[in-house]
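From the methods appendix. Each design record in this collection lists the tokenized structure first, followed by the designed amino acid sequence. Records were kept in a plain field format so they could be parsed without special tools. The example shown here is representative of the layout used throughout.

RECORD:
FOLD TOKENS (273 positions):
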């Protein structure tokens, strides 16, 4: 009979415990970015928009990450994709003192292609009365536009509709909608609960907010989804509600706890077909 000493037992248990903790605290939240490719098949798509590429990022949460390398990985992935534009769906920042880092990242995005931004709940919570100043600083960067319940035509017949954060009830979708009838609409909002107001009114919605659950446990699934109960099914990836597509990204950063498990950060590489 083989006798296992306490030291040998600890030698077996310690790596089994340490490796998941390293993944939980360092590897997944700080060193891994997955690229998700998605094709949107739009029946009325004009020929000049065929193969039009949109990169989607969200939830960078400047101030919550431990290593800045994650943002370098994101930028590298975006450059490789060579999109026509970037959409950035909120929660840029978690702490006011990291405004400069968020601005530097936005400058790097703008060097790639025009970038369109909407606010998330943490932008409102962390900056409060300074949010207008942050918007002005962002829009002083060439090729950056912050859309707050407004729209812009970016190509002939293609509109980007930016809705302020639904989670904190700053959204006004009706105000944001363009007047054009024969057009393609891409809507940006931080929280997927916007689907309750936009289904069948736009072609595509890009959202974030959920972090994909951030911590996914085997069998159990996500331990927390920050959405009203009727919208908790929209935790991540692609959905279609009637004639409207919605992509919910896992985002880049973390909130509350600086950890991820079975839910790595994500850059979305979308193509119109």
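DESIGN:
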């Amino acid at each position: 009979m083989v006798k296992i000493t306490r030291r040998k037992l600890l030698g077996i248990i310690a790596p089994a415990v340490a490796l998941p903790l390293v993944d939980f605290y360092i590897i997944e939240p700080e060193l891994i970015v997955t690229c998700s490719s998605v094709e949107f098949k739009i029946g009325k798509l004009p020929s000049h928009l065929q193969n039009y590429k949109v990169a989607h990022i969200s939830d960078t949460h400047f101030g919550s990450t431990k290593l800045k390398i994650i943002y370098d990985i994101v930028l590298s992935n975006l450059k490789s994709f060579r999109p026509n534009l970037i959409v950035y769906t909120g929660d840029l920042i978690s702490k006011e003192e990291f405004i400069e880092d968020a601005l530097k990242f936005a400058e790097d995005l703008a060097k790639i292609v025009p970038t369109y931004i909407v606010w998330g709940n943490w932008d409102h919570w962390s900056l409060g009365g300074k949010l207008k100043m942050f918007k002005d600083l962002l829009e002083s960067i060439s090729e950056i536009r912050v859309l707050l319940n407004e729209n812009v035509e970016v190509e002939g017949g293609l509109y980007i509709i930016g809705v302020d954060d639904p989670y904190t009830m700053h959204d006004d979708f009706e105000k944001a909608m363009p007047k054009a009838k024969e057009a393609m609409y891409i809507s940006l909002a931080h929280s997927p609960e916007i689907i309750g107001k936009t289904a069948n009114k736009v072609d595509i919605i890009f959202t974030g907010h959920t972090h994909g659950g951030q911590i996914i446990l085997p069998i159990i699934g996500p331990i927390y989804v920050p959405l009203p109960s009727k919208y908790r099914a929209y935790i991540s990836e692609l959905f279609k509600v009637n004639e409207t597509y919605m992509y919910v990204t896992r985002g880049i950063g973390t909130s509350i706890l600086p950890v991820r498990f079975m839910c790595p950060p994500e850059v979305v590489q979308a193509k119109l077909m």
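APPENDIX NOTE: The chain has a mean pLDDT of 93.
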